[in-house]
Design brief:
Elements: H1 14-29, H2 44-62, E1 67-68, E2 71-72, E3 74-77, E4 82-85, E5 88-90, H3 95-116, H4 119-124, H5 126-142, H6 145-153, H7 158-183, H8 189-197, H9 203-223, H10 225-231, H11 234-237, E6 248-251, H12 253-256, H13 281-284, H14 305-317, E7 324-327, H15 329-332, H16 342-347, H17 353-375, E8 379-385, E9 392-393, E10 399-409, E11 415-422, E12 428-431, E13 440-442, E14 446-456, E15 464-467, E16 469-474, E17 477-484, E18 487-490
Antiparallel strand pairs: 1-2, 3-4, 4-5, 6-7, 8-10, 9-10, 10-14, 11-13, 11-16, 12-14, 15-18, 16-17
Helix pairs in contact: 2-5, 3-17, 5-7, 5-9, 7-9
Length: 495
Amino acid sequence: MTGPVARSYPTIPLQAIDAVAIADQEQALYEVRKKIYPRAVHGVFARWRVALVILTQLVFYGLPWLTWNDRQAVLFDLGARKFYVLGLIFWPQDFIFVTGLLVISALSLFLFTAVAGRLWCGYACPQTVYTEMFMWIERKIEGDRTRRMQLDKAPWSARKLALKGAKQAVWMAIAAWTGFTFVGYFTPIHTLARELITASLSPWEGFWILFYGGATYGNAGYLREQVCKYMCPYARFQSVMFDRDTLIVTYDPLRGEPRGPRSRKIDYRAAGLGDCVDCTICVQVCPVGIDIRKGLQYECIGCAACIDGCDQVMDKMGYPRGLIRYSSENALTGKTSEQTTAFGKVIAPLLRPRIAIYTAILASVTVGFVASLYLRVPLKVSVQRDRATLVRDAGDGRIENVYRLQITNAVERPRSFAISATGLPDLEVVLDPNDVRQPIEVAAASTRTLPLRLRAEPRGLSAGSHDIRFHVTADDDPEVSRHEEPIFFSRKGSP
């Protein structure tokens, strides 16, 4: 017998093994994006999306063209530091109202998400709205899903160039108009239109029109679902606002499985099949390209396009609707009854402690915000002492302090204001220069700054600081009044 034959094997360098391992890791981590071709769908939720697209864009594109008191109804004039919102004028000092508005928006997002998932993402988010607009244009020009796929695979021709060019031209026009409208909230839009026509835009106006228009074009035309998957943080932390009673877009596996194609004429139950015919319509209509039948996924934006698509198939097959529907995890697992009444589907999910707490907090903050707006005094007063001189002689035996008084008239009509001071005996307000007389005239929606002096008799005053009060009151409405409490310095007076 002969022993085993020794064989030699080629030696693979360690560096090559490392390179292969790294390449495998990169392939696993960085998947090449596959273009999604969403199929057109019709139904209840599709109509809701269309309605919200129309509503939000009427507000966005139309609001800058509305006038109010002979000026733009909504204008954020950064140069003048004035912010006009319908009949209200806000100043940088009113930033607290912006904070309140952001808090209300965040609480609303928490509440809506806890009730029915990503309603904001699916129906009203700007990314969803503009993507829906761009996809509608794409379908109108290039055709539905199958035609678009065939067009992309076809070699370049005059027809393909014409269709692609027309689509790009419309996309760019909408993006440019969107950028123009956005800048129109910060520069009066009529002025901006004249500057655009005469090619006299400032560099910053031109930059922001191109920047915002380019962002709209790129996000809605090309990035699309990538923004929702990778750029938007909401998809990552939405799960903390869900619970097992949150209404989500979900597939019913107990009813749908086992799935499979079949003829409408056969008894599919006897054949051991569920209601799902495995047509993949739910995947074809999904704007982010997921399969809802795999369960809840963070990529799902809750647009309910799969519900509309599946209901159409169920209607054609003669099966009950709702294989894909808004439901909760507890309802699907049988822990709560999934009633068909309006109370069971709408009211019952709202009767949860989390929803009650969110609603109570949101209602409280909203009431406080509205009350603050209603009770806001349209007058702002600021007083600053002259720090160069604490106290000086007035020349008539009295002492005086110098102040700088700033009055902001926050209404769109001129107003007169009376200035007085209290806190010390015989305290007198002396306006400087001397040709300024009371009452003080302040133009509409403007600020006036006045140097003034306060004079007091030093007799009986202790040396040091004294609390005083400035009073600024509108002549036409005593309720419009502000009080400031600066310090008055004195030297030791005569006994």
